[in-house]
Design a protein that fits this description.
Helices cover 49% and strands 17% of the residues. The strands form two sheets. It has a four-stranded mixed β-sheet with strand order 1-4-5-8. Strands 2-3-7-6 form a four-stranded antiparallel β-sheet, with no helix packed on it. With 349 residues, it is an alpha+beta fold.
């Protein structure tokens, strides 16, 4: 087995060590700076899973996971802004619509950074964003409750639902324009730095060539549900960063637990997902959250009163851990996590 780190893993570690980790507490309070985004763009990490023929690295999923761990452990806010980008790239890589030829190259090469505005689709049958045909394009109306990276992203992948229960994803410039207005940045318990806003969409018109995906809602939802069963690599990155703040005697058993659940989570991720295996994947996901909670709590305890300062790395990691508990949450994953939390130790979950 070749144990030589992938070049993008090496770049991610260098970026984390030289730039992201030293500035993380300041960024947490002041916001992700444009310089961080430019550094990520230059690193090639935005194209880690993008097709090589369009300028990406075409790296395997294990590399994407490892770079995500590294970035999230160094500066979770910067990781969260850039991680949105991979969904538009993967959507375009599978797309047969004109937006593919126009945008896949610039996104794969890191020339443009894309955000996403589609999590509201999981509220269906409520249609928070409605889409209707208008002339040679499409009209979007409604509210996007959460949009991350406002002021940092170049473009966004916006989704809505039609009257015929189809989902339509299309690209728009990530800026205020006729039919698109952003709220003030939200003040959140964690990751305020990622510049999250809500978007009011009132008659935003996008041309047919902006479309990246148009499919029945049921088909999209089935694929989305399987993706949300996986454990987020950021969980392991933040947990490992918390363990690095502990003495070895405390950290060693926790690190062993973390490695075990990581191995099982990634083994499941490398197998084709199916409805039959949903329970096992959600159980491992909940177990990973438990290790994350334990690791970040231990870091706060070890730091004592200093952990209450906003300049404390342990305190920041603990808040980021809280964020990861609900990031990408669905009704199914929430129910599974709550069952795990309510089950006494030693009993089957």
């Amino acid at each position: 087995m070749d144990l030589t780190p992938h070049p993008l893993v090496v770049r991610a570690r260098r970026l984390a060590t030289d730039l992201l980790a030293p500035a993380a507490e300041r960024v947490d309070q002041e916001g992700v700076p444009a310089g961080h985004i430019e550094a990520v763009k230059r690193s090639g990490l935005l194209g880690v899973a993008a097709p090589a023929e369009h300028g990406g690295a075409g790296a395997p999923p294990a590399v994407l996971r490892e770079t995500a761990e590294i970035l999230a452990g160094a500066c979770c806010a910067t990781w969260f802004v850039q991680t949105q980008h991979h969904t538009p790239v993967q959507t375009l890589a599978r797309s047969g619509f004109p937006a593919r030829e126009r945008l896949l190259g610039p996104l794969s090469r890191g020339e443009l950074l894309s955000g996403v505005a589609y999590a509201h689709l999981r509220s269906y049958p409520r249609r928070l964003v409605r889409v209707s045909r208008q002339g040679e394009g499409w009209r979007f109306d409604g509210t996007v409750p959460w949009y991350t990276g406002w002021g940092l992203n170049d473009v966004m992948l916006l989704a809505g639902v039609t009257d015929s229960d189809e989902v339509l994803f299309a690209f728009a410039e990530a800026r205020e324009q006729p039919g698109l207005r952003a709220s003030a940045p939200m003040r959140l318990a964690a990751l305020t730095a990622a510049r999250t806003v809500s978007l009011e969409v009132d008659g935003l018109w996008l041309p047919a060539e902006a479309v990246a995906l148009h499919t029945p809602y049921a088909r999209w939802a089935a694929g989305d549900r399987l993706k949300t069963l996986h454990t987020n690599p950021a969980v392991f990155g933040v947990a490992e960063a918390a363990l690095s703040l502990l003495d070895e005697g405390t950290a060693a058993p926790l690190r062993s637990r973390l490695a075990d659940v990581r191995d099982r989570a990634y083994a499941l991720a490398d197998r084709p997902a199916s409805e039959a295996g949903a329970g096992e994947r959600l159980a491992v996901r909940a177990e990973a959250y438990e290790v994350l909670r334990t690791a970040t709590t231990a870091a706060v305890v070890a730091g004592g009163g200093r952990s209450m300062a906003l300049t404390s790395r342990a305190q920041r990691l603990a808040r980021e851990g809280l964020f990861l508990l609900v990031q990408g949450q669905t009704a199914e994953s929430r129910a599974a996590h709550l069952r795990a939390l309510a089950t006494p130790p030693g009993e089957p979950r």
